[in-house]
């Protein structure tokens, strides 16, 4: 029951130390550490939205893999809290400092290596911390030259979200908007309060057509309170479970393909 969305036979913490000690071909086993967040997502979504999305993608992907033909994969207990400093002005957000999250993930990586595994995937589903997991992966690679590291941001997986929402929403709906709300209507519908959903786009802090952006690329340091009073950046009122099902299916298909590539990957050629 502690494995949640992860298939029980893929949950690392259910193994005994003897299981791990005697596991064959450990250097090709893929270990996944999900990294999420516990942070405000407006008045209509639960704090665990990012963590829930990441766990759903991982769990449903593993359900679809053929156990006889698929890679051997185990998922570590989730790292729920992450680096969410941009949301700390909103009540309820639990944020680790970047240094704390870095140290935690480094220690986990060292432990995975010490157990004999040589493929570790950080699967991050919070937009505020891809840089942290990328730095950790690089530092672990430097420390352990035969450890293969993969730092994956869930929203970098190819998906069809852009085809289901307006261009304006796709560009500016970066937090608790239509896309995330649609996903949560599938993942944790009973905790989505659509009656409280409200639309709020950020003020025009940078000119349209300019080089500066709020979402990615040539961006600047912002706090959520700079962009939103409600905690929402986007329009969740247009969210539907049908859109959520389609987006999730595309994310899961991409992650399945990625896992098969990681299974075949060998950096020591």
TrEMBL record:
Protein name: Creatinine amidohydrolase
Keyword field contains Metal-binding: yes
Gene Ontology molecular-function annotations: hydrolase activity, acting on carbon-nitrogen (but not peptide) bonds, in linear amides; metal ion binding
Source species of the chain: Adineta ricciae (Rotifer)
Source species taxonomy: Eukaryota, Metazoa, Spiralia, Gnathifera, Rotifera
Domain of life: Eukaryota
Annotated keywords: Hydrolase, Metal-binding, Zinc
Gene3D superfamilies in alphabetical order: Creatininase (3.40.50.10310)
GO BP terms, alphabetized: riboflavin biosynthetic process
The keyword Zinc appears for this protein: yes
Cofactor(s) this protein requires: Zn(2+)
